[in-house]
């Protein structure tokens, strides 16, 4: 395993969680292009753009979301 310190775990979680979520979302959005033969190219482009634009938001929002979740749950 990679020796990333646990204090950075929310960053690692954000990268893994958002990578998988954006991959699935962009694949679903690209499904109509499956019949034209451009699915893979479009999917990779849309995934990369969404990942680059949203990753910083996810990383910085994760601690606030975690505090909110802890506040509203018992």
Automatic annotation (TrEMBL):
Keyword line: Membrane, Transmembrane, Transmembrane helix
Keyword Membrane assigned: yes
Bilayer-spanning residue ranges: 12-31, 43-65
Pfam families membership: DUF2798 (PF11391)
Protein name according to UniProt: DUF2798 domain-containing protein
Organism: Bradyrhizobium jicamae
